[in-house]
Amino acid sequence: MAGVVVVFDFDKTILDCDSDNWVVDELGISELFTQFLPTLPWNSLMDRMMMELHSRGKTIKDIAECLKHAPLNPRIISAIKSAHASGCDLRILSDANAFFIDTILKHHGLIECFTEINTNPSFIDEEGWLRILPYHDFSSHSHGCSSCPPNLCKGLVMERIRASLPAEGKKNIIYLGDGTADFCAGLKLEEGDFLMPRKNYPIWEITCTNRSLIKAKVHEWNDGEDLETILLDLINPFFIEEKYNVRSSTTDRMVLAVECKFLTSSIPAHEASSNSTLPVP
Ligand SMILES: [Mg+2]
Ligand SMILES: [Zn+2]
Fold first, then answer.
1. For domain 1-17+72-127+153-281, which CATH number applies: 3.40.50.300, 2.70.40.10, 3.40.50.1000, 3.40.1190.10?
2. How many CB atoms lie within 10 A of CB 278?
3. CB-proximal residues (5 Å) to ion ligand 1
4. Is 125 one of the annotated active-site residues of the chain?
5. From the CA of 20, how far away is ligand 1's center (Å)?
6. Is 11 a catalytic residue?
7. For the segment 110-145, what is each residue's pLDDT rounded down to a tens digit?
């Protein structure tokens, strides 16, 4: 189902906490982090904190072990796996960094579900220090967006994602996030797309006060259970449409999904099992 592209923020969306804060707190450098925070952009500060960990004898393995324990709701794991199994094109757009995201997704068996991870690049230098670089090189020029941090404008990346999609056939984008920069990405959504802001998080407040700026349909979510239910409800009609070659408008899709669910639930088990399965919300 290449017609649906699902773009996830990572921290406080897929992961229940912020991976940067998690590592800083768990490895005992919170005080230093707070002390440096007013003096450096967040992304540069994280690079500096990795140097600090290195100088305190913490290895890459220690950081990876710490990341593996970061809280991730099992319903979000199943939501990602179901969306992937339905054929959706899943991507990540995050202000964390490549090493943190790769480590966590691999640990939970999710890395293969994603076609693209857009985030701050990272590498391990010859001394074993994890280096974290900005997504946009802001030392030479600014990306010009005042809503996003200097190292990454999510709106710009969303524009690039849309431009990279194949020209034939309308692609619908579903975007999920919690932060201010996620709202910047949401502004790039079009009619037929869906924005899933996390309720009572910064994106939610901004979406409520600037609703007219968002062209996409808005479906808020609270927790992993909500995320799974809403995301799969949004995806299901596209799946049915493609599988049974039914054309429908966006507004008809919810009705179609309900009818198809009713249809499958009324089929006796032995017949249903010989049918190809519908994604289970
Ligand atoms: Mg986030
Ligand atoms: Zn921006």
1. 3.40.50.1000
2. 18
3. 9, 11-12, 178-179
4. no
5. 11
6. yes
7. 999 999 999 999 999 999 999 999 999 888 889 999
